[in-house]
Predict the structure.
Amino acid sequence: MSLTVRSERPWWRDAVTYQIYIRSFADSNGDGKGDVEGIRSRLPYLKTLGVDALWITPWYPSPQMDHGYDVADYMDIEPDYGTLDEAKRLIDEAHALGIKFIIDIVPNHSSDKHKWFQEALKAAPGSPERERYVFRDGKGKDGELPPNNWQAIFGGPAWERITEADGTLGQWYLHLFAVEQPDFNWDNPVVREHFEEVLHFWLKLGVDGFRIDVAHGMIKEPGLPDELKGADLLTAQKSPYFDQEGVHEIYRAWRKIFDSYPGNRMGVAEAWVSKESLPKYIRPDELANSFNFHFLDSKWDVKELKKNIKESFELLTTTGAPASWVLENHDVTRSVNRFDQGLKGGGVDSPLKRFGDTSKFDIKRGTKRARAASLLMLALPGGAYIYQGEELALPEATGIPKDRLTDPRWKLSGYTDPGRDGCRVPLPWKADVAGSYGFSGNPKLGDSDSWLPQPKHWGTLAVELQEKDPESTLNLYRAALDIRHKEAGLGDGTMEWIEAGKDVLAFTRPGGFACYVNFGKAISVPAGEILLASNPIQSDVLETDTAIWIRTK
Ligand code: GLC
């Protein structure tokens, strides 16, 4: 298979994948929560935008303690979101438009309402029911202390003590995330078999791939030893519960399953691991993509971005896999705010690190930088993932009233970290507030009636307005994705850095294409034909915080 011709290589080497946070995308039945039919009604929008694939966040039955990342049944659809028939129709209609379809799979933990966990609670210590999860006796005289010192990612201890069926205080179970998200025991073949069955179920229904939640989790170090230091996810530091060698065996088994179906089915890893570890997840017999969170974690800083792009690209591609660039998702502060406020994307645990100094937030400057970053990302070799609303340059909603915050992080951090709700606010489709700015099919809903309230200025960012404005971010994305499809040298392939001064990040792609991003004082527009610029170009000047795509020959 030739890797130089796009039409001949697997789609996931080049794809721009659009992440749909289902609860906040489009609400067809008017209950203030997004749903499957809402997505279906917006397929024409996604087609016009020009994305190649969709990734839908968990749509399974779930008590929604972590908005679907607490799954109660892996082979059905959350009734609030729709039915399996509707899901099937959505997959088929996306395919009919030439759009691939990826779903989220959550193998590290289930909901505590999952049938298996309920059975485990009722069963005795050491029983097969308990063995599907990670139950241990506590330490101390009466087992009153947790089995080890691990802390949950959302805050507090990673262990919860249960009351046994006879009413006495009993064993503890592991939950690396919320208390309601017990970790599966992946040393148990029954768990492995169950997830393989889940993969077959959805592959048969037609999905093209899986975004694997906490892909660096699942396998824990034997003996569950204390950890020496809290997890710092993006460094090379070893953790007894993340990035263990054993996870790769799981992906090698999954890859065989993907390859047993036609059409280049795939997996993409959500692995918050070091630059050195990341390539392991995308070895030829493992997954296809792994989000490059080192790119997402970069501040708006020419040196930092260049270093992270260079190092991660070089390491990632040692395996022959493509890089997967990402700037936003449902877990991190919107890039408009991050890039304005000098914030990093990962490792966030306080309002200041999450939002910066909101009194100094300059939305114009943040938007300008986010737009430039988009052109940078879409010109880099490999695929890219964009998060709903990124194409509208939505800023973070930093003013959600405290009594409306729903992210489990808010409570588990002892009410110190507002959590991730600010990037999960329902999309504004219409300028008028009716139907929560067109998000909902119920015109009676206003800006505070959907599951998360929308900021007062949301309507000014609406799809409806941006469609009519030739200089809107939406139209910038449409143009960029259109060019990306037509340029044979974009997508997967090689890049060459250009030396263009200390404040300019610049590189070429095959076929006479160049991308320049100016972080410093205004410079003259580089020679060539302008294909696209993140900001209007006047008098041949490339302003600060602007990216430009050039035809060099
Ligand atoms: C992943 C998801 C995040 C979720 C967590 C626990 O990091 O992206 O939203 O809370 O896993 O499932």
